[in-house]
Amino acid sequence: LAIQTDGKLLLAGGASNGVDYDLAVVRYNTDGSLDLSFGVGGKQITPVGNHNDSPNSIAVQNDGKILLAGGTYNGTDYDYLIVRYNSNGNLDTTFGNNGIVIHPIGNSNEISSSILVQNDGKIILGGYTFTDTAICHFALSRYNNTGNLDSTFGDNGIIISNFGYDNEVIYSIAFQNDGKIIAGGSSGNVNNNDFAVARYKSSYTLGIANYKYGSDNFHFSPNPFNIQTNLKLSFCPKNATLIAFNDQGQVVKTILGINKTNISFTRGILKPGNYYIKLYENNQLLLTDKITINN
């Protein structure tokens, strides 16, 4: 349910086509009658693919455009889904692929359950993603107004938070007055589910307090350094990604496509200070470390 500034009501749900379910949006006037100026007779039905489409949240942008978020089944599993409509119910062809964004965050099921729109028009989805066939974690993603992932948010537009348990699912997200994002949901603790809440900075990932620094499998040398350091690994990653964060959790450097055991890290425009490193392979965190740049 969403309420427009003119008081009209928007409801989102599913509509059966006899084989599977499509997205459905209905708009009502303030007196409860169907708004015939919306869609077809007050209703808009959108088949995204050839399988079930599941709408879980609806929001209205400041310009009156309507956002629907949920998941769409690709024949194997579910992917994140956003659909944007103009105020008359027609698909907004300036957004994504003719009004539709389908985003597979990982290699298995992921469904968004809640949507937020920032004052600058950026769109945040909250839900879950499976890291394998049995375990899912909190997942946030942020998109620009055109439907593209916002690479300044989290890890190239995505934040996956692991509480250390199974079945970690976001049910709702909301903004604080200071712009921070609150995500509420549940986390399994073997025998049952507990309440789970996480707070995120609006442009950053979760804090960096739990980093583990170095191990026998990897180390940076020299560290501290002035211009360049090298990460030496005891294993060879496959198409890995290295991400550096400053002490506020902000992404400041990314190295893609790593397929070797010795990785050069140059200072570039980075200022003196501490930086925190994450190395990912296939969306799985392989290591964390801290490096220090001297004056």
Please describe the topology of this protein:
Layout (H helix, E strand, L loop, with lengths): L1 E2 L5 E8 L4 E8 L14 E4 L6 E8 L5 E8 L4 E8 L14 E4 L6 E8 L5 E8 L5 E8 L14 E4 L4 E10 L5 E8 L4 E8 L17 E4 L6 E6 L6 E6 L5 E8 L3 E5 L6 E9 L2 E10 L2
Antiparallel strand pairs: 1-2, 2-3, 3-4, 5-6, 6-7, 7-8, 9-10, 10-11, 11-12, 13-14, 14-15, 16-17, 17-20, 18-19, 18-21, 21-22
Describe the structure in your own words.
- This protein is an all-beta fold and 295 residues long.
- About 3% of the residues have low confidence.
- It has a four-stranded antiparallel sheet with strand order 1-2-3-4, with no helix packed on it.
- The termini are far apart.
- 32% of the residues are buried.
Instruction: Give the uncertain stretches in residue-range form.
Output: 204-213
Order of helices and strands: EEEEEEEEEEEEEEEEEEEEEE
Helical run tally = 0
Cα gyration radius (Å): 22 Å
- Summarize the biggest pleated sheet: 4 strands, antiparallel
| Strand residue content | over 45%
The assigned structural class equals: mainly beta
The backbone outline, from C-alpha atoms, is elongated
**Strands side by side in the biggest sheet:** 1-2-3-4
Assembly type = single chain
Euclidean distance between termini CA atoms: 54 Å
Compute the average pLDDT: 86
Count of distinct strands: 22
